[in-house]
């Protein structure tokens, strides 16, 4: 827990960064060292027998303060009609009160507002809290920009706010990733891209690289199924012949005997036997590559597409917003088609057995 900005319970003065802080080993309460040593014990010592926990105590206190402020603000708001428009703090454009991004410049409207329309309040450390739960508003689940300034440039001519308008889905994750790529040239492994490879890239409208990965992974998957199931290749017959005389042995001895039997086969049958395993290995390699490069590839796609749209709609902000909405986001229909197609192709070889 970050204690700076909280108050020492003994002297009731804020704890500064340069202060020598002592934390109670029982309840976790922070004190100035001199206050703790002068008292000779924790300020909350008399409450230790009741399993007092300082972290829980502070959170409850902050939530109570936030709730009180919320009730006070609500009492005032009931006397006022909700505004129908929101003025962009960056360019002054009027926007619908339900919007989160400026339709003109892409800046975030009312950055302190959550998606649920709840009003945040500042805690003792400067964090903002949800009046109903006390959760930091910097968390990705509430802040569509993940704490990134919408006016910050991710690349020449493209701001984080404009990139967020293109991304649309899961913006907190991607905007934070984009900032790390821009600042440190570092990304994160994308497990969705690892699991769904080209399908995920097509879902994110990275059509060129997505098509390449989809074709490669599809060919390897179909190749494995065809070789293992179609009688023309005889893979099942080869495998049955290899294991028929091994008997009941340990797993290590089984693979040792299998390798020995394979080495005695004609070269053609060896190639047929190893082909599915080679294909599967190559498929896993492609999956790891996809997971490793997906975020950087998506960053480049977002920047390139956004720049192109800005060039095409120079000065026409309404048309720019329309094109960003249409060109960005995800392609759910294509993802479903690919999923169904993969299921059909996966079972297709069994009809030829």
Indicate the multimeric state.
Answer: single chain
- Tally the beta strands: 8
What separation lies between the terminal Cα atoms? Answer: 62 Å
Strand content: 5-15%
- Please outline the major beta sheet: 2 strands, antiparallel
Count of DSSP helices?
11
Helix content: 40-55%
Structural category is mainly alpha
Unreliably modeled segments: 75-82, 112-141
What is the global morphology? Answer: flat
> What is the rounded Rg?
30 Å
Give the integer mean of the pLDDT values.
78
Strand line-up in the sheet with most strands: 1-2
SSE string: EEHHEEEEEEHHHHHHHHH
Using brief descriptors, characterize the structure shown:
single chain, 353 residues, mainly alpha, two-stranded antiparallel sheet, two-stranded antiparallel ribbon, 11 helices, flat
Itemize the secondary structure elements and their pairings.
Layout: E1 21-23, E2 30-32, H1 33-39, H2 54-77, E3 85-87, E4 94-96, E5 121-122, E6 128-129, E7 153-155, E8 158-159, H3 160-167, H4 171-184, H5 191-203, H6 207-229, H7 235-243, H8 251-263, H9 267-312, H10 317-327, H11 332-347
Antiparallel strand pairs: 1-2, 3-4, 5-6, 7-8
Helix pairs in contact: 3-4, 3-9, 5-6, 5-9, 5-11, 6-9, 9-10
């Amino acid at each position: 827990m970050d204690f700076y900005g909280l108050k020492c319970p003994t002297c009731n003065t804020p704890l500064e960064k340069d202060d020598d802080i002592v934390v109670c080993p029982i309840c976790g309460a922070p004190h100035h060292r001199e206050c703790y040593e002068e008292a000779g014990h924790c300020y909350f010592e008399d409450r230790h027998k009741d399993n007092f926990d300082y972290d829980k105590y502070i959170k409850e206190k902050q939530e109570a303060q936030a709730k009180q402020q919320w009730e006070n603000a609500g009492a005032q708001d009931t006397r006022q009609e909700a505004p129908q428009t929101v003025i962009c703090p960056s360019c002054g454009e009027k926007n619908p009160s339900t919007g989160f991004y400026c339709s003109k410049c892409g800046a975030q409207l009312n950055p302190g507002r959550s998606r649920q329309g709840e009003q945040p309040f500042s805690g003792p450390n400067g964090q903002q809290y949800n009046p109903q739960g006390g959760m930091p508003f910097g968390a990705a689940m509430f802040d569509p920009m993940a704490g990134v300034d919408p006016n910050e440039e991710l690349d020449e001519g493209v701001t984080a706010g404009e990139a967020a308008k293109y991304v649309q889905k899961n913006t907190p994750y991607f905007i934070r990733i984009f900032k790390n790529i821009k600042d440190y040239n570092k990304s994160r492994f994308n497990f969705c891209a690892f699991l769904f490879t080209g399908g995920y890239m097509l879902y994110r409208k990275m059509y060129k690289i997505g098509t390449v990965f989809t074709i490669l992974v599809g060919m390897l998957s179909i190749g494995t199924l065809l070789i293992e199931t179609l009688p023309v290749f005889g893979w099942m017959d080869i495998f049955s012949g290899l294991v028929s005389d091994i008997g009941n042995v340990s797993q290590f001895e089984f693979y040792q005997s299998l390798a020995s039997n394979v080495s005695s086969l004609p070269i053609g049958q060896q190639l047929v036997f190893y082909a599915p395993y080679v294909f599967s290995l190559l498929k896993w390699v492609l999956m790891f590559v996809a997971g490793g490069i997906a975020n950087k590839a998506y960053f480049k796609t977002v920047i390139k597409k956004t720049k192109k749209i800005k060039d095409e709609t120079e000065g026409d902000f309404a048309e720019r917003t329309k094109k960003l909405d249409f060109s960005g986001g995800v392609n759910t229909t294509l993802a479903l088609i690919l999923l169904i197609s993969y299921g059909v192709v996966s079972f297709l070889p069994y009809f030829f057995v």
